[in-house]
Write a sequence for this structure.
């Protein structure tokens, strides 16, 4: 399970680099933070149950943040402009 967290760290690092190259610095910093978190957790060698609990908490926070952002922060009908 620790390897899966290091793998998620690798892919979030790839996304962070692509976002930075694409000029999305805030998005890139968000994924750099996730990369650091995933890699650090990957080297803690926790129990599999604890890794599942941490991932469930991570998904809960993500879904709450994503729902808040799409409901209250995005402007309807702006078309990305």
């Amino acid at each position: 399970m620790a390897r899966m967290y290091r793998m998620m760290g690798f892919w979030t690092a790839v996304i962070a680099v692509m976002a930075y190259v694409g000029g999305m610095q805030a998005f890139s910093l968000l994924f750099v933070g996730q990369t650091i978190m995933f890699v650090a957790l990957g080297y803690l060698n926790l129990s599999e149950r604890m890794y599942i609990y941490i991932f469930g908490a991570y998904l809960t926070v993500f879904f709450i943040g994503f729902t808040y952002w799409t409901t209250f922060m995005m402007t309807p009908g702006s078309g990305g402009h």
